[in-house]
Amino acid sequence: MKLRFVILLLVAAAALLPYDAVTDVHPELADAGASAAHWLGTDHLGRDVLRRLCAGGRAFFVPGLLALAVAGSLGGALGAAAGWFGGLVATTIRAVTGAVAAIPAFGLVLLVLLVFGPGPLPLGVAAGVTAVPAVAEALYARLDALRRAEFVLAARAHGVSDARIFAWHLLWINGRDVVLRELAATLGTVLVTEVTLSYLGEFGVPEPTPSWGNLIAHALSTGSTNPLAAAAPVAAVLLTLWATTPPREQPWPS
Q: Which CATH superfamily is domain 2-16+39-243 in?
């Protein structure tokens, strides 16, 4: 579990490294193999694959963080309200989130990008909205199962306020792990969405700005003789997806 967390931290740290996509063009070094100067070789324009791989993480991390904020705040609030109050409140909230969940996530993201144009802001907000139902439902299920538990009744009998029971015992102690799991999965969804969009090219990150999706697309379309030009971003995507999918039986580190 800690390894997954470390991988995400490394990807985030690498994305912060400075990189100038305009000046990193050296045609005389095109498709060079791995060397001491270029650990993963170069692409069809002589650009350093490792540096572009590191910088490419920004393309999904920025909208990913925005998606986490949207899904965590909105989904957490809706799930908490449904789980605590139950009854008509829960039925209404679950009906709304169920309607959103019925819309294909990728289709909703494409629709938002079509209306507002490509960019990290619309991508992050749209991806966050598609994750709200999963976060809300996960938190609702946990709170609904616990709000009538014996330890809640015992806490009330000892004079503990409902506000403390709700905020501390239910939300923080027993609810944060399910929310963090869903948010981790949301980050993985944003990664897949961004890579797909950039690979297809229509609504993704345009060249020369690096993205793992356009790194893969250009390595394959140009027929690069450096196999790492395509293999490295593919490996980065798979490794990051693994890191954002913690085992269900274990809590996400807090």
A: MetI-like (1.10.3720.10)
